[in-house]
Amino acid sequence: MEVVHLTDPLKLACGYSLAEHVLCVETYGQLNRSKSNAVLICHALTGSHHAAGWHVGDKKPGWWDDVIGPGKSIDTDQFFVVSPSNIGTCHGSTGPLSINPKTNSTWGPNFPKLHISDWTASQRMLMDHYKIKCWAAVVGGSLGGMQAMHWSVTYPDRLLSAVVIASAMKLSAQNIAFNEIARRAIKEDTDFHGGRYQEKNKKPLRGLALARMIGHVTYLSDLSMAEKFGREVLSGDFCNEKLESVKFKIESYLNYQGDKFANGFDANSYILLTKMLDYFDLAREYDNQPSSAFRVATCKFLVLTFSSDWRFPPERSREITKALITAGCDVTHAEITSSLGHDAFLLPNSRYQQIFSTFMRRVASTLER
Amino acid sequence: MDKILDSILPWIPSNSRVLDLACGDGSLLENLQRIHQVNGYGLEIDEKSILECIKKGINVIEQDLDTGLNNFSDNCFDSVIMSQALQEMRHPHFLLGEMLRVGRECIITFPNFGHWSARCQLLFLGKMPVTRQLAYQWYETPNIHFFTYRDFKILCEAQKIRILHYDCVAEGYPDVYLKKIFPNLFTQTAIFHLSL
Asked: What domain range is A113 assigned to?
């Protein structure tokens, strides 16, 4: 991991300017002589710079280890992969846990409101840090896909291809609703203290766990939960409920996931980032015409979606592809059959890997050596 | 394929927008891009064919044509092509209408079931024809609608579709000589260029 200090001011969409900021970055593979083989990884809501490989003491590899590595879809023998933690997150890059130079205390709930354009602007500065002129690809799933799309319309001459997986051009009312339930769960925790929990040496663990449990359900599918847990009982007996009430396996799983997440994530970050997700609307500045937005894009697109994803269902990806075709952009679109819901983009699937690898090999074959 | 390509090339202007329905491995679009620099997209559902298109760098969209083309707006393409697939569609007449809604012109190619060899097999052997163009046994064929050159012309008249050009592919004797005189009997692959 590398901590990159970006010393130029970053003007945020909300009007606030960060005089300087830091990004934690992991890179994989080697940058070639003409610096043409760099791939930017855009993480999703709770992702980090640790996308691939194992750290000492890890129980799990990086969040996209199935995709990034030697011989994998994003082949690190071919590409130089750049994976930053973006601003506003809580894994070491500038965010609510960092010190506000003006007050000399942590930003906490006062960290400036973020838009996806702030992330791509910061990534654009990171590009200069590595002296990369043009990304071979900007790649991401979910919120990561939104960044890839935003790159394609904001810095069209700075990327050759964009891979947009399980994503959408804007959130639906249902998506926003789930995010608001999550935020309220956090805010209602008595340890939240209006976001100033750090000063009180507290953490709204219950609220954050609950928020994650809600989110987690929306990342799975009815079918994948049925396959993985069904109605399997962990403890208790239907015939004798006086001693102990019946506990299903899914309950214990969700509670475990919630608690694990709450201990590793920051509540203010979660609120900040879900808000950023809610605000995003690719076509807002283009008269609400997505095809007008894409008209400036010149890169080749790969749009992938999963059949059982109900967070960003296949229809959302079809809208992206329709807009791209209307705009005359080069696009390949595939719909992967999977029972794993939104999380499918993080998990192995032979057809997904085949398409992704084939597309990336094609990208590699067109690069200047 | 080359003969079909030769026929349709003059009907497709350079730099035009082309949609190829059931584009297969993308060869036709690859040729059109190379020769006419078209802005082309292919629709396909076969997984292997989709991968072949990606390998070639062809824009391919995974889409089932039987659900129609309602994700495309009116007249958003100059030409919509469907080569050797209309006989596999659930509602050919519906799709034909969709093609002419989405594109200003369309090009259809199909195996002519009225070819003499098909007729002879049915008439003299009493068996469903298996020819080079209709290369499947009845129980495994993807072709669910059999129609002839004449049938297709009748459909075009009924739907008030203008036939801009017609061409036919026929190889071997006597087909090459007689296809112009008796197209319904000697055409192996029919090629129609249509508009509303």
From this structure: 2-170+285-365
